[in-house]
Amino acid sequence: MMPDSVLDLDAVSIAFNGNLALDGLSLRLQPGEVYALLGPNGAGKTTTLNLILGFLSPDRGSITIDGIDGVANPIGARTRIAYLPETVMLHPALTAIENLEYFALLAGRRIDAGTARGLLADAGLQGEAHDRRAAGFSKGMRQKVGVAIALAKDARLLLLDEPTSGLDAGAANDLSQVIRAASARGIAVLMATHDLFRVKHVAHRLGILRGGVLVDERDAATIGPVELEQLYLEKLAA
Ligand SMILES: Nc1ncnc2c1ncn2[C@@H]1O[C@H](COP(=O)(O)OP(=O)(O)OP(=O)(O)O)[C@@H](O)[C@H]1O
Ligand SMILES: [Mg+2]
């Protein structure tokens, strides 16, 4: 692998009950790169994220995260990864600041309230929410706290699974900004998404997964939104 890549999947395959969910998937992300994994239901997007997180083990191939072998050492590799699930779980009784301090501590980082405030601001959470209990937080606000946790943890790789599903346009736009901010700090971002409309504004590279095979990959800058939708439909029909 290239020495500076944050994520390197090489010819990864995994089957469930004899059915291949991923078939020879290779992916490489450089620091700060934002990669969007597109594909229909069942294409293998979440499986890819679960493999990177070490929750699944590949039948074949290798997974390297920031130089760490993710198959041999999933716990070590996970220290370099922040994961935003569809619903970021926060402690409802704790404020945003307290949640951040708590989850940072779980990741082995002790941060003070001032640092927490700065990270929440960097993640785009409005100041008036910093001292509010998380119980009333919207999905978008939870994600911002999730990103702040990723920043506190000093993760090298941020994984997001369908982050814009269920977000209104404003919150989805906020999330794009937050992803760009993480990218500007050198964090590589891999997101699984169905959002063809928004993906071009945030991703540097797009990959289309179908039946566990990467059937297309290209620079986001080289394709317009209408072309992307056409390409996507073509690739699914092919
Ligand atoms: N733990 C599991 N046990 C058995 N089969 C699984 C398991 N996880 C995933 N699969 C199968 O692997 C394939 C890929 O599923 P995956 O969840 O990765 O798709 P996806 O691209 O995330 O789809 P969606 O867009 O619906 O979230 C599917 O056929 C799914 O049924
Ligand atoms: Mg999925």
TrEMBL record:
Keyword Repressor: no
Entries under InterPro entries matching the protein: AAA+_ATPase, ABC_transporter-like_ATP-bd, ABC_transporter-like_CS, ABC_Transporter_VariousFunc, P-loop_NTPase
SMART domains given in the database record: AAA (SM00382)
GO MF: ATP binding; ATP hydrolysis activity
Domain named ABC transporter: residues: 7-236
Keywords of this entry: ATP-binding, Nucleotide-binding, Transport
SUPFAM superfamilies for this protein: P-loop containing nucleoside triphosphate hydrolases
Native organism taxonomy: Bacteria, Pseudomonadati, Pseudomonadota, Alphaproteobacteria, Sphingomonadales
Domain of life of the native organism: Bacteria
Keyword Nucleotide-binding tagged: yes
Protein name, entry field: ABC transporter ATP-binding protein
